[in-house]
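pls design
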């Protein structure tokens, strides 16, 4: 990955295109788009884990990993979502393996083993699915808080502008 000094940035309309030394181009916001796709796959994964669908959660988490693998590896935002994607993939794989092993155990001869395998895979799915939902929910909350802050700043700016205009009109009438 070339460093920032060896990149030429060219602006064309609303998109900035980063020209790298190896003549490849990358649109700015590329990593953000990858994170958004990965978060979408992780939303699906978390719900599938909670609803005990390990095969489908394995597929959606592998899509999240595949989506994130092309992004910048040294970005702290990408590391966070890549880590969540990899852990989701591993938890889904673990739950699927335990579930398959549980299906092979004879319930009459090894009831405790079968029950323990079922409990372990459900606990892993529910705990990680819940943590993933919490992490994704906090991301949504952060965006809502940012939108509220921006809206309050804009409203404060508008009210200051209106009050200034009223004061100017009052000065013009009295002056």
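designed seq:
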């Amino acid at each position: 990955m070339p460093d920032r000094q060896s990149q030429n940035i060219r602006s064309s309309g609303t998109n900035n295109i980063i020209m790298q030394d190896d003549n490849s181009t990358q649109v700015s916001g590329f990593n953000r788009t990858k994170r958004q796709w990965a978060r979408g796959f992780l939303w699906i994964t978390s719900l599938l884990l909670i609803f005990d669908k390990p095969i489908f959660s394995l597929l959606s988490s592998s899509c999240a990993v595949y989506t994130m693998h092309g992004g910048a590896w040294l970005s702290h935002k990408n590391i966070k979502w890549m880590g969540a994607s990899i852990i989701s993939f591993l938890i889904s794989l673990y739950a699927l393996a335990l579930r398959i092993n549980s299906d092979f155990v004879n319930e009459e001869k090894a009831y405790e083993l079968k029950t323990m395998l079922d409990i372990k895979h459900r606990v892993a799915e529910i705990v990680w699915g819940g943590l993933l939902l919490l992490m994704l929910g906090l991301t949504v909350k952060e965006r809502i808080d940012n939108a509220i802050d921006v809206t309050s700043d804009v409203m404060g700016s508008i009210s200051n502008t209106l009050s200034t205009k009223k004061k100017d009109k009052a000065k013009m009438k009295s002056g």
